[in-house]
Amino acid sequence: MSEADRVPSPAAPPPPPAVAVVVAAAAAAAPEERKGKEPEREKLPPIVSAGAGATAGLDRGSKGQISTFSNFISTVSQKKEAAENRSSPTHLVFPNIKNVRDLPPICLDVRQKQRISTDTLSSEMKAPALPDPVLPLQPKTMKDFQEDVEKVKSSGDWKTVYDFYLTTFDSFPELNAAFKKDATTSFNTIEDSGINAKFVNAVYDALLNTPQDIQKTVLKGIINSLLREWKGPRTKDDLRAYFILLQNPQFNNTSTYVIYAHLLRQIATLVEADHHFLVHWFKKLSQKRFKQLVERLLQFISLRLFPAKPEEFPPITKCSWWIPSASKVLALLNTANGLVHPPLIPYTDFYNSTLDHIDLMEEYHTWQSFGNSHRFSFCQYPFVISIAAKKIIIQRDSEQQMISIARQSLVDKVSRRQRPDMNMLFLNMKVRRTHLVSDSLDELTRKRADLKKKLKVTFVGEAGLDMGGLTKEWFLLLIRQIFHPDYGMFTYHKDSQCHWFSSFKCDNCSEFRLVGIYA
């Protein structure tokens, strides 16, 4: 059928419906005759989009022609269904659109009505709802576990204990089911982790005395748990699982460091709110367990820096995140230790003496250049650096500042076309022995710009070149005078064996400032 046959011109009147039926029947019979004896096939009428048909009609004719064309399609479809496919259960009904404006508007109201209408469907037509996740039941109590361990001593059969470890460490939900005080309670408070700490300790204490196949089963379960729980937001049960796994004594062995590193990485990358929960749970640990966690992390860092057997670990270029992750978790423990009064362990227990043997100045310069950004430096975690290491850093930094200030003074002198003088490289102090404190205070006040330069002392009326001896003598005499009880700046307390500020000298702060500059 040509374009002219389907869309009549405005001059000719549209054909009546009866003629349209005859034409359609003749068109349908022609292909059947060409097929010969081919079996008849069940045919469905073509699905015509109401919107597409209406749009096409607007392009070709007036509104009256759109109605006639739609009637034509509807009549052909109904006749063909009645003649060829009476037994077919499928009946397609096309809407008799008289105008494009008759189409239902696509808006939020319609979508809302469509969503509400699904509630009126019968139960057979609705999709089945997903069941709520079922938490695993608590397999054993602490008493049951201890009885099973005692039976092993007499029978030698580890199957019951093996099944317990296999099930418990298989996933995070299983860990929560085994060690939560109540598996049906959420325990979403920072003060109570909801974990049976005594049960956890009993299970871990017994783990190290089990056969190797049980210990390997636990490590395999931890690997699968870490891989399974890597994606998605963390729940409080996930935090409890991390809290439990971190106490595993198997991580003292270097052969487990790869697994331990991935556990530390997942904990270190948690959001701040999750860290807040862990910090408050850490402070509830016993002193013994808390110290074990700290020592395990310090050992992990030390052996990664100076491995006894380098072949045991991946190359440092492929596991550069190990030490930053461990340091981050160690920072959480240090924060938890500071929240307890008195602290669980002394702050010196966080010192890592291994760091005394690395290039501390490189760490310091990295920290100065990048701060607390993505570039790691131990100076970001000063609580792990010992007093001796901090002393070295401060001393070398002071020396570098002296050299930098002296160099800048020399450049300024040359830029002003003045003759350089060696005295410009030092903080030159001329004092009288009879007025040691007052002269020293006056010199330091007048030469504040040179305070970072190297000190050089000259006693008035005495010939001599300060090669270090005069400076030491000045320090000794100054300290002896300002701390003398008769001078009145400080008082000595025999009980504490310390000097403290005197109440009689608090009206003059300049001399105390001198002591601070000297220190």
UniProtKB/TrEMBL annotation:
Catalytic reaction(s) noted: S-ubiquitinyl-[E2 ubiquitin-conjugating enzyme]-L-cysteine + [acceptor protein]-L-lysine = [E2 ubiquitin-conjugating enzyme]-L-cysteine + N(6)-ubiquitinyl-[acceptor protein]-L-lysine
Protein's UniProt name: HECT-type E3 ubiquitin transferase
GN (gene name): HECTD2
Residues in HECT domain copies: 447-519
Organism: Hipposideros armiger
Enzyme class: transferase
Region of interest called Disordered, as start-end residue ranges on this chain: 29-62
Keywords from the named record: Transferase, Ubl conjugation pathway
PANTHER family: HECT-TYPE E3 UBIQUITIN TRANSFERASE, UBIQUITIN-PROTEIN LIGASE E3C
One GO process term, biological-process aspect: protein polyubiquitination
Enzyme Commission code: 2.3.2.26
Record PROSITE patterns: HECT
Basic and acidic residues: compositionally biased ranges: 31-44
Domain of life: Eukaryota
InterPro entries per the UniProt record, alphabetical: E3A/B/C-like, HECT_dom, Hect_E3_ubiquitin_ligase
Molecular functions (GO terms): ubiquitin protein ligase activity
